[in-house]
Amino acid sequence: MNIPTEAIRKELAPGERLLWSGSPVRGLRFENADLSKSGFGLIFFSFAAFWIHGVWSQSSAANSAQSPLFALFGVPFVLIGFYLLVGHFFWSALCRKRTEYAVTNQRVIVRSGIFSTTTKSIEYRKIPTLTLTEKSDASGTIQFGETKADHSGDAVSYAASKMEAVPDVRVVHHIIRKASATPA
To answer: Which pTM does this prediction carry?
Structure first.
């Protein structure tokens, strides 16, 4: 357990005991969902770059003043493609750097945010299921609640009801299971 930050200590209610606190694993990480995002990003980025190259080539041949401005229209698409290809790895690392977790005898606390900080409190009595996903490095995700299918059959999960990239995830999962089984 890491030493809790002042922000986490301020979140604790009178009589609430801290059982574990920590931060997600730092640095760049590759998750299973990243493969499809990066694959789509490669296609999107390549198409946008090819389109800009075609416009520039055509403007040089035609010696037109409007074509360079038309080529600039493709720049946002190149940037989106670049984000999908590799940028999301850096964004995820930045988000994890600004995230901290705490497990108490009453709830799980998740503090996160880049531009403003959001504190989420997940009370044990409101957690229908607890799902553990562990990676080979012993880090992983603890999801609170189930993934539900909506009326169209597409799988959607509850918004951010999880702790991601938790180091020693099995230990933290055990602490949460034990605390949720014990009356506060």
So the answer is: 0.76
